[in-house]
Specification:
InterPro entries: NUDIX_hydrolase-like_dom_sf, NUDIX_hydrolase_dom. It comes from Senegalia massiliensis. This protein is 27% helix and 43% strand. The chain is α+β, with helices and mostly antiparallel strands. Strands 1, 2, 3, 4, 5, 6 and 7 form a 7-stranded mixed beta sheet that branches. Strand 1 and strand 2 form a beta hairpin. The radius of gyration is 15 Å and the shape is globular.
């Protein structure tokens, strides 16, 4: 099995969260593979910017970790993605999805995003991250 370390962001703007629709029609959160020598926190910011076009984002706090397995037809072997997530805050609603791997995306009200998101662990991640984000915002704290 191929193990891939990844990092991503749960990006909020007020009471909205950013999600993407990929080429398989799955609604997901922005993330990507951690390149050799890079830190998870750096990769999360880079991948969020690359996939969403959001320029002015700030990391607020770690959000947790998830993992999933799938069979890669191109690699002809199983793959396990382990993802380190960060809660992020966008400073504007302006985004620009340029990647051809995504059909759609944007900021959605939390409940609408949770209904759209394909995978249950991502739904849970958004719920928990939103609670933590609001708590930190109310306390005027940023951990990272």
């Amino acid at each position: 099995m191929l193990l891939r370390n990844c990092a991503g962001g749960v990006v909020f703007y007020e009471d909205k969260v950013f999600i993407l629709k990929n080429e398989k029609d799955e609604w997901i959160l922005p993330k990507g593979k951690i390149q050799s020598g890079n830190l998870a926190i750096e990769t999360a910011k880079i991948k969020v910017k690359e996939e969403t076009g959001l320029e002015n984002i700030q990391i607020v706090s770690p959000a947790g970790e998830t993992n999933y397995e799938f069979y890669s037809l191109s690699r002809k072997k199983p793959v396990c993605n382990e993802i380190i997530w960060f809660i992020m805050e966008a400073k504007s609603l302006e985004y620009d999805i340029k990647s051809k791997e995504f059909k759609n995306g944007g900021f959605y009200e939390i409940q609408e995003a949770i209904e759209k998101i394909t995978y249950s662990q991502d739904k849970s991640l958004v719920r928990l991250s939103h609670k933590k984000y609001l708590k930190l915002k109310n306390e005027n704290l940023a951990i990272v």
